[in-house]
TrEMBL record:
GO cellular component: cytosol
Site (Important for catalysis): 83, 244
Protein name in the entry: 1,4-dihydroxy-2-naphthoyl-CoA synthase
Keywords noted in UniProt: Lyase, Menaquinone biosynthesis
Catalytic reactions on record: 2-succinylbenzoyl-CoA + H(+) = 1,4-dihydroxy-2-naphthoyl-CoA + H2O
Family under the similarity heading: Belongs to the enoyl-CoA hydratase/isomerase family. MenB subfamily.
Residues engaged in binding substrate: 32, 71-75, 83, 115-119, 141, 147, 244, 259
Length: 271
């Protein structure tokens, strides 16, 4: 077993490999890994742990078992205005997980066996890459069960599969198999489900060999193309990070601390 527990949770599992791959597993197989507010809270914590751990380079998001990646919001705890947790408050907090995945400065890979349905489908959509088992089934159910995700679940989906296909997916609520998903560019790769984890790890390890800052900036750039000013926030945040690493920026800080005038003229201007 290559997985070591990073943190104990109730609804999810958070494991890591020695070489810097984290795996977040939604662990509610009795409901096809549907999420309730507590699940979502834990997912947010897990993503934060992964973000803050400088040894983690890639994150896998998956569901327990081979039946399902995730079947979306737990309809059994759906109340007025959202999904109701132990605190009695109705929430749609999965949207915060979508944001966390998008702004995570490391690649997030969806590893999909079985159903990725409804809000569970949107989760794989917002991940950087998707590796699917040959038993994977994809689809939205919103208009059938009285819900919809008009945010990234629609607009970003359309960036991936195109407007016509995105409308088909949402209006008809059909299910698509792994081959169909591959054909429409919805997933990156399909393998027999028994090889799913090995193949996903292979993709992760290829990324681990590459420059983390380059991957980070690429993710921010690709996001910025879709994400407006919040996309620019993350992209520019990376520019600031790189600038802070430079001697030129350090001169500004040191001059302030030493109560002297900064000398920026000693630095060459790039063409
Ligand atoms: O749209 C949003 C949001 C939009 C904006 C903001 C926030 C959002 C948050 C969430 C969502 C949504 O996710 S709405 C979409 C909710 N999900 C669904 O409509 C999918 C419902 N499930 C299914 O269609 C099917 O169960 C399945 C295709 C995933 C699997 O079918 P299968 O293999 O035939 O299994 P099935 O017998 O249906 O399910 C096994 C058990 O899991 C059942 O429980 P049991 O009868 O044994 O007690 C079933 O009720 C349970 N289950 C499956 N999915 C869910 C679920 N229980 C609660 N919630 C589920 N989502």
């Amino acid at each position: 077993n290559i997985w070591n527990t990073m943190h104990e949770f109730q609804d999810i599992k958070l494991d890591r490999t020695e070489d810097g791959i984290a795996k977040i597993t939604i662990n509610r197989p009795h409901v096809r890994n549907a999420f309730r507010p507590e699940t979502v809270k834990e997912l947010l914590q897990a993503f934060e742990i992964c973000r803050d751990n400088s040894k983690i380079g890639v994150i896998i998001l998956t569901g327990e078992g081979k039946e399902a990646f995730c079947s979306g919001g737990d309809q059994k705890v759906r109340g007025n205005g959202g999904y109701v947790g132990q605190d009695g408050l109705p929430r749609l907090n999965i949207l915060d997980v979508q944001k966390a995945i998008r702004s995570m400065p490391k690649p997030v890979v969806a590893m999909v066996a079985g159903y990725a349905i409804g809000g569970g489908h949107v989760l794989h959509v917002v991940c950087d890459l998707t590796i699917a088992g040959d038993n994977a089934k994809f689809g939205q159910t919103g208009p059938k069960v009285g819900s919809f995700d008009g945010g990234l679940g629609s607009s970003y989906l359309a960036r991936i599969v195109g407007q016509k296909k995105a409308r088909e997916i949402w209006y008809l609520c059909r299910q698509y198999n792994a081959t169909q998903a591959l054909e429409m560019g919805l997933v990156n790769h399909v393998v027999p489900v028994d090889e799913l984890e090995a193949e996903t790890l292979k993709w992760c390890r290829e990324m681990l060999e590459h420059s983390p800052l380059a991957l980070r900036c690429l993710k921010a750039s690709l996001n910025a193309d879709c994400d407006g000013q919040i996309g620019l926030l993350d992209l520019a945040g990376n520019a600031t990070l790189l600038y802070y690493l430079s001697e030129e920026a350090k001169e500004g800080k040191e001059a302030f601390i030493e109560k002297r005038k900064p000398d920026f003229n000693k630095f060459d201007r790039f063409p």
